[in-house]
Amino acid sequence: MTKLAQWLFGLTLFLSIWMAILKDLSPIKVTNDNIFWIYLIPVAFVAIFGVVSLLIIIYRVATFNNCDDAAKELTKEINQAKKDLEVKGFKFK
């Protein structure tokens, strides 16, 4: 099962249960006092998803690996390309 299929399955499951509770089709009976909080459940999930996504991005940026060897190799290749272009008549400022 792909990740997309897993997310769609979870979303469909959540929405079907949430709609069943809202339409009073489930054995869970909701009072008028609690209906406001049930309406806010999707908003809370979106907010939690956003916060978790932001934390994952911050963590991955903070633990990003530097590739010093690759940087040295790239600098060497750039210098070699500049020398080749200078031999062919290209002038750098």
Task: Chart the SSEs and their pairings.
Elements lengths: L2 H20 L9 H31 L5 H20 L6
Keywords: Endoplasmic reticulum, Glycosyltransferase, Membrane, Transferase, Transmembrane, Transmembrane helix
Function: Stabilizer subunit of the dolichol-phosphate mannose (DPM) synthase complex; tethers catalytic subunit to the ER.
Subunit structure: Component of the dolichol-phosphate mannose (DPM) synthase complex.
Question: Could you explain how this protein is built, in words?
Answer:
The chain is an all-alpha fold and 93 residues long. It contains three helices and no strands. The protein is rod-shaped. The model has no long low-confidence stretch (mean pLDDT 91).
